[in-house]
Write a structure and sequence with these properties.
Blueprint: E1 21-28, H1 31-47, H2 52-73, E2 80-87, E3 93-99, H3 126-133, E4 134-142, E5 145-152
Antiparallel strand pairs: 1-2, 2-3, 3-5, 4-5
Helix pairs in contact: 1-2, 2-3
């Protein structure tokens, strides 16, 4: 996996109140890049004081988001992802994820309804899990970029 140039984040993506800790990551959207990034991010969240439950939820959410970008936005060919984290004093974590892949179908996030487990679907659990484990999720397409903003619960 190769890394690419960094981008600037606008003031509108910065959290308020003042974060206790913030980090930015350059990630290549491929299996190796996602695994490496998750290991680094989970260590940072632990050092930032997030409890085990909040870190586990964050890992599931971020693994789903990054895997979806690799598979769907970039179609498995890899591409750059910029991820910024802000750990707030109240224990919540804000996350901004930007990629330059294909937009989400119809320009909106998929629905958050779980598939019927009795039908044994192969997929379809990612977005419901992302929505369930996040306090807030917002998607928008900015020119040629996808931006996903998440507020992860603290504990």
């Amino acid at each position: 996996c190769a890394s690419r140039a960094w981008i600037r984040y606008s003031r509108s993506m910065r959290p308020s109140p003042e974060p206790r800790r913030s980090r930015r990551h350059r990630i290549e959207a491929c299996p190796e890049g996602v695994r490496a990034a998750l290991g680094t991010i989970m260590a940072e969240l632990g050092a930032g004081g997030l409890g085990d439950g909040a870190r586990q939820d964050a890992e599931i959410v971020l693994a789903e988001v990054l895997t979806n970008i690799a598979r769907h936005a970039y179609g498995g060919t890899g591409g750059p992802v910029r991820l910024a984290l802000w750990i707030l004093r109240d224990g919540q974590t804000l996350c901004s994820v930007i990629d330059w892949g294909r937009p989400m179908p119809g320009g909106v996030m998929p629905p958050g309804t779980m598939p019927d487990p009795h039908r044994r679907p192969e997929g379809g659990f990612g977005w419901p899990l992302i929505r369930l484990l996040s306090a807030a999720v917002r998607y928008d397409r900015l020119g040629r970029r996808n931006r996903l903003r998440l507020r992860l619960r603290g504990a």
